[in-house]
Design goal:
Blueprint (H helix, E strand, L loop, with lengths): L7 E5 L4 H12 L3 E6 L2 H12 L4 E5 L5 H14 L5 E4 L14 H22 L9 E5 L3 H4 L6 H20 L5 E7 L8 H4 L3 H8 L10 H12 L10 E4 L7
Length: 249
Amino acid sequence: MKRFEGKVALVTGAAHGIGKQIAKQFAEEGANTVIVDYNPETGTKTAAELSEIQKSIFARANVASLEDMQAVREQTFAEFGRIDILVLNAGIAFKGTMNDFTLDDWNRLIGINLTGLYTTVKAFYNDFLTNNGSIVYISSGSALSGTGGAVAYPAAKAGGEGLIRGLAKELGPKGVNVNAIAPRLIDTGEMMRVNYPTQADLDAVLKKIPVRRFGTVQDVANLALFLADKANSYIQGQTILLDGGRTIA
């Protein structure tokens, strides 16, 4: 029997990159998946690909909207009748200084990266009071380092880690495991090059990583599944830094 057979895993921001890989590995381990994303073209394509492994549906949503996430909950239960795992992965990033960053930019990023955590959990909260489920937040090493683009990005990620710790206390007695992963220097292609636009930039930072490689989407997905697995349920309220030792170097 596969680790997540009979379970339903919902991943936000799952049309590509880290989110897609997490959803794919859940499918490979027997879970039905809900691909939540704002982009219907890539989201539908990802759900179709994963359906070749295990049943998967696409749900279009702006995670900053509680109404959208409540509709996602309805769609999930109409299709599968349950929810077991939430992976809070949706996020955006901008590069620039405080002077470059407008209030509209701030509100948009905080809306998706932080408020989107609240709306997703809020929509499914009552289900997690009885399902003995798992919630995994994909944070960022930026919450600790202050890097990652404009100042709103590390601010939102740090806020998300606080939310996760609060949820861990609140939902732990209900049998729900809540943890976060803080990836740093994960080579997803486009996002890496926000901060390291040239090969020389990439080569320079690689020398600062003790394991001498960048992280992969598989690295993040492996840890996400580990934290969602009830065999590891004594881990609670933690943020695990996944950075090849970069932060200590």
